[in-house]
């Protein structure tokens, strides 16, 4: 699909969804007036992240006291079936992230309430739900509809049906989804951010989510090298964060 056709198709899809008009307005501003916002402080933060980064295995051991190799052994069949579902999916979405980090953060906190932003195939959702089902906990997910790809039916496709009973999926932009989620649950054990990549979008969501993270809860943010929002947030709040280098990108994680 050409870029012009993709933009046109997306715009028409927005017009058909009045509930998404607020996000359409934000998108227009972000892509015109605030175009540089997505990369604000990127060089500074990539240098900072590189100087701090360690492996996912080291972080899981240091923060949570687990050996991460057990994850792929314990859930071998589930992961194999989910990988096949991704291969069979006719549209391309975001791939799997640091699944072990998410799973063992849930195990460490004995999580009952987890919130994530960004779903796509549902790999991070799967990692959280594999832990949550042990305690009959709930995963609350915010995910913007895939307006240009007609891909809504495939969102979360790698999550097995038997795990979906512990999952509540909100299909709006974060600024609409998060207030709805907070109205249902006031405190969370795990926060996983992987949605709006802009500096302003991150800073708004980080602030909103952090105050609802319980003491001893775990905060995880993907792709922190896109701009300096995560670094600035941690410095503003005097947070000592770990940085994971994962497949050429950086993930931030800390215990509150």
From TrEMBL:
Keywords: Methyltransferase, Transferase. One of its GO terms (biological process) is methylation. GO terms for molecular function: methyltransferase activity. Coiled coil: none annotated. This is Methyltransferase domain-containing protein. It comes from Chryseobacterium limigenitum.
């Amino acid at each position: 699909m050409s870029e012009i056709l993709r933009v046109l198709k997306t715009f028409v899809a927005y017009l058909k969804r009045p509930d998404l008009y607020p996000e359409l307005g934000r998108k227009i501003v972000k892509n015109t007036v605030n175009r540089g916002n997505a990369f604000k402080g990127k060089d500074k933060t990539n240098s900072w992240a590189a100087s701090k980064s360690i492996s996912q295995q080291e972080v899981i051991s240091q923060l949570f006291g687990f050996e991460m190799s057990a994850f792929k052994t314990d859930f071998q069949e589930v992961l194999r079936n989910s990988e096949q579902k991704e291969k069979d999916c006719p549209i391309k979405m975001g791939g799997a992230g640091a699944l072990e980090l998410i799973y063992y953060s849930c195990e460490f906190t004995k999580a009952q309430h987890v919130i994530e932003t960004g779903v796509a195939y549902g790999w991070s959702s799967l990692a959280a739900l594999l832990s949550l089902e042990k305690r009959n906990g709930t995963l609350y997910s915010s995910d913007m509809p895939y307006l240009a790809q007609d891909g809504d039916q495939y969102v979360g496709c790698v999550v097995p049906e038997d795990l979906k009973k512990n999952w509540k999926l909100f299909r709006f932009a974060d600024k609409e989804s998060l207030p709805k989620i907070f109205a249902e649950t006031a405190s969370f054990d795990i926060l996983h951010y992987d949605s709006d990549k802009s500096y302003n979008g991150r800073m708004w969501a980080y602030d909103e989510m952090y105050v609802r993270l319980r003491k001893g809860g775990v905060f995880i943010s993907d792709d922190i090298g896109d701009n300096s929002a995560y670094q600035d947030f941690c410095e503003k709040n005097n947070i000592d964060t770990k940085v994971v280098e994962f497949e050429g990108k950086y993930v931030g994680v800390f215990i509150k």
